[in-house]
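Our preliminary data section would be incomplete without showing what the modeling component actually yields. Below, a chain of 482 amino acids is followed by its predicted structure, encoded as tokens that our downstream tools consume directly.
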Amino acid sequence: MSPALLPPRLPGFLVQEVDPTPLPEPYPVAWNAPLARALGIEADLGDPDWLELLAGNRIPRGVTPVAAGYAGHQFGTWVPQLGDGRAIQIGELEDAAHRRFEIQLKGAGRTRWSRTGDGRAVLRSTIREYLASAAMAGLGIPTTRALAIVGSDLPVYRETTETAAVLTRVATTHVRFGSFEWLASQRREDDVRQLADLVIEQHFPALLSLPDAERHAAWYREVVTRTARLMAMWIAAGFSHGVMNTDNFSIVGDTLDYGPYGWLDRYDPESVCNHSDWAGRYAFDQQPRVGLWNCARLGEALHPLVSEDDALAALEGYRGTYEITVVELLRARLGLATAADDDGKLAGDFLELLRTSGSDYHRSFRALSRWDASDGATLALREEISDVAGLDAWLARYRERLTHEQRPHQERNAAMLRVNPRYVLRNWVAQEVIERAGGGEYAVVDQVRELLDSPFDEHEGMERWAAAPPAGADEIVVSCSS
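Predicted structure:
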């Protein structure tokens, strides 16, 4: 037996009760079996009941589906009315550890916040989010998850005519910075407080022991801290979100809403993965700054729940948290088990070497993971980094730094291979999966998802998915319609 869905716990003042729009003649596209097992689901999309449920064609017994309202700053511009325009929560599941997860159908039809949209998602965008959330989870980065994709031949009109699909998204919560901005902009201070208290009770229970006068400030400080750490994880992983609007920032510090994202190929800190971001506001190297800016907007929405002094103190701590975390992560990628004052500069100079030589970010770190000062290992690294003189000069410093480490190179190499992925979701990989699935080859979606679930393993026979972009593929761009 699979678990029954529990009613959503979002407060009534935040949501609209709305049923999904039925998806005609649904069929299975992808099923995240490991995630299903973790949620206690024994069935799969071969079960007609689950297929109909996740297509939005059947309402769970005892559950009233809802869509949530929110606002946000989009590309720095205030938009007072947004909300779930195509996403409907159909309930919650509780796992064996009694943790509850919201089950949301993305692409399930119109809501009061759809504006002129049709409330649908397309196969292309659902595959991108399905794979991206798996890739982030595989890298150990906090994220929403994706359980399933259900397809249909229903035509959906974007730049071209595409086919409809529904993505099942799983999260501890979909409450976002913009949820609080929406309520605060309408001067609904009691609702802001009630939502904050609900979020603390459900997702920050350790803070419940604090006195009322301290609890909200401590919670905001924790949200800022989690956001700073998340930005450091994105940077160390070579990941660009692409649409870092405040309505796309999770209140619990998860990566939320995958549209025009991208993992770096050639290391370029000024890379912009979103074709719609013509000003480069959300460029790769701007992400830490934008994360702080977004936290400040949340702080404004929480006033007077969190005083200005407490909010500023929390924001002051953001930079230190970010810098400590990103250096720790890069230190691990360099195989350094101990800390030294110059580790940040050593890592930064390696990144600069990658930039000036036009080297692939992930393949270069993976090659370094096998370096042991032998001629063969050095030659393999030179195949990735063309600046031989620059590489040799950096390796001399790296070799000197390693003399202060206690573990042998075999142990260091093994540790590095556990943090420098063999497989990342490059745009060319996602595009090939989308094209093959568009031709009816759906099995490839979960084949690639399985690689991304364990991206540090070799996966013999699947090596082509670890390759740098083939000729022309590095020109693939995505936009907000993705």
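The mean pLDDT is 96. The two ends are 36 Å apart (CA to CA). Preliminary results of this kind motivate Aim 1 of the renewal.
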